[in-house]
Specification:
The chain contains one helix and six strands; from the N terminus they run αββββββ.
Length: about 140
């Protein structure tokens, strides 16, 4: 006799509901985590596309973001000339991106590195995972 043959119908149903709930929770958690990673990757990808267009255009000075992007109601791409100090090393901005979703301000530097500046002004380098559409 197996363990399950002694269970009542109610206990079996409760166990099945519990297992399905756990599977749903894990699936939902993976979707949320991947969604957040994509939300961090997308602005970085956008800035890299703008940066690439600027470089292909001969890196004209002064840079103009409006030459490389279309207007959007949900985000703003702009020229960012601020300097950011990260781990004692200065990074000079070129273009910035800010979404209405308020995930911070993304900045691409003149050498193509992407940094994220949170609302408190703290800057950090953004690391893009090599094999997935994930960031950080």
């Amino acid at each position: 006799m197996t363990l399950f043959s002694k269970w009542t119908r109610r206990r079996t149903l409760l166990a099945a509901i519990t297992v399905l709930s756990l599977v749903f929770a894990v699936f939902f958690g993976v979707i949320i985590i991947d969604g957040e990673a994509y939300d961090r990757w997308r602005p970085a990808h956008h800035l890299r596309m703008v940066y690439g267009a600027w470089v292909r255009d001969g890196s004209p000075e002064p840079p103009r973001a409006d030459r490389y992007v279309l207007e959007s109601a949900s985000s703003t791409t702009f020229v960012d000339t601020a300097s950011h100090l990260i781990d004692g090393q200065p990074y000079r901005g070129l273009f910035g991106y800010r979404s209405t979703h308020r995930l911070g301000t993304y900045v691409i530097t003149r050498n193509g590195e992407v940094i994220v500046v949170d609302d408190s002004g703290r800057a950090r380098l953004l690391e893009i995972h090599k094999t997935k559409a994930a960031a950080w």
